[in-house]
Amino acid sequence: MNRVWLSLLLIIVIAGSYYSSFPGAFHYDDYPLLLENPRVTEPDFDYSSFLHQYGGRPLTLWAFHINHRLVGDSPFGFHLVNVGLHALVVLLLFVLVAMWTGRMAVGFLTALLFAVHPAQVQAVNYIWSRSVLLMSVFLLLALITRRPWLRLVFFQLAIWSRAEALVALVPLIWKDPRKWKGIALLAGVNLGCFLLGFLVENPVDVAWNHPQALSYWLTSTQAFWMYGYLALIPFSSSIYHSALELSWQTPLALASLLVAGWILWANRKRWPWPAKSVVWFALFLAPGLLVPNTAQFHESRLYLAIAGLCFASAWGLAKLELNRVFGSFEGEGALRDPGPSSDPKFRTFGYRRAVRFLPVLFLVGTFVTTTHYRNRIWLSDTALWEEVVQKYPMDFVPRYNLAVAYARQGNNDEAESEFRLARSLNESDDLSYAGLGYCAESREEWSEALANYESALVINPTNRYATESRKRVRAIMTAERLAP
Length: 484
Known about the structure:
Elements: H1 3-18, H2 30-35, H3 38-41, H4 49-52, H5 58-71, H6 75-101, H7 104-116, H8 121-125, H9 130-144, H10 148-161, H11 169-175, H12 180-201, H13 213-232, H14 249-266, H15 272-290, H16 302-318, H17 323-326, H18 351-355, H19 358-378, H20 381-391, H21 396-408, H22 412-425, H23 430-442, H24 446-459, H25 464-482
């Protein structure tokens, strides 16, 4: 089959998998980091951020800025771009794998599984996760292009999209070891600027500021296996996963990781491509696992990493001789197509051959069905957090975020109920007190609102929302007392 037709087939599959996700919706960090971010919503963009805010994803913010200029606050326009970027990543992955292996069947199946994998739903539907999509586009372009200078350009664009792109230094050098100096120099300069930004901005709860950095590193082995489980059995997705804690599972996860690594190393020559696919998976998860941050487990980080496991699956399925149907790809490292077999059973697409497609059809059908279901959940911010509350009923974070979702819909009674539950689960959560203050303020119960805002500031004096709200409520109360 011609690769153009296969590319069109991939686009049709993506459209069929994600049509149920429209018109899209804003969620969680989309509000403070996107819709309420002046760098996105102001008429002019601060292009100096490309030089001094490496960790701030300047290219992603610029893409959001352009998106906002074109469609305003419409979630449909933002979501459409995300789906389009996902389609572009799928096509680039098809080309890359086909070039590297010389087998169009492996490239197509890798891209097909990647396109419909249910774990990708969060990266596509969660608009703030666009950084992952943009990074993936430019990294795949860097790996595909044969021009060294263009490879460096794409690598830099990927870093500006999301700083985790620095780990692509490994596959880029592996692809062309002779050009390692330029790639290493560019990565070194960006890493230095990134660390300098950390020193200047000194972000809270990130890197060396994390209050439990050692615990974070130790439990990262558990997080790795959780990512692996979700990639292989993608039917327990959620926007939120509870924090990992040290337990008996921690040494077991570390020991099993060491054993798996040894097995992988021992069989690297026997199964070279599956071994490289697992390394790819681990490599693109490494930044989130090694750099302590506020969210140890986040499904969107699986996005590009999962391409490795999709490739391993496609490599196995290609053992069913599907390459005879799809043909080979004349490209880098290509294996010559052996041509039509003299064996009559390969001359026609008989029933025996069709049976070999059943595992692919079953897997893809299951993935598409699950993706449709997850798309419907992502259409509503309240539905998304209601699902999490059912999963973690005693965790205050989902309760708080569900309350915020209710408040944004104007359902203040439900919001207040959830804020109270969140506060009862964590008495030291200043945000829950601030939320209760908001609900009281909406009912014009100024004294109760003021008391909640002040309670929030006792817990966290740097809570800017509570500070501004307390000032506003005090002004209203003063004006009412002075009124005749």
